[in-house]
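ok so i was messing around last nite and threw this chain in just to see what happens. nothing serious, just curious
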Amino acid sequence: MARLFIALELTEEQKREVGALQEKLQTYMEGVRWVKPQGLHLTLKFLGETDEARLDHIKQAMDESAASIKQFAVVYGQSGVFPSPRKARIIWVGLREGYEAVCDVAAGMEKALARCGFEPEKRKFTPHLTIGRARNPLPENIARLYMDREKSFTTAACVIRGATLFESKLSPQGATYLVRYRSAFHSQ
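result:
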């Protein structure tokens, strides 16, 4: 069994930019476990504990979905929290550009994987980068301060050339992600 998910990768420049934002946030947010910049990704579909025998079907579904997707640009930016400012436990960065395209990719992957027997997600897809997790809900004034103070945060643009199947290995030091497969979008 492998703990799998499909995601979009960030460029090294984008990881550095988000890392700098995280350092800034550490000056006024306490009790947050920050995602290491090297582990940042935008999850399209979490597959969970999956039998290795299903890998070929997953790769096939990814390729089938990717065949109809053209490469597109994304710019990460804006700020938010889940589930709400009053009970904020997840600190995230959204998308300034590429929102519709990312939603289309996620919907296509969802459909292709459903045909392989994966349970469709019931919650509405909200494209975001989780950058930190609070052990306890943040005070509402801190969550609102983040959302207001960092609303202009923006990364450099990058072209999304495909989706990546990752395996997540959990340890006391945090999660590490291994690339299991990459599915390319077309350039024209």
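not much to say yet. The chain is about 30% helix and 35% strand.
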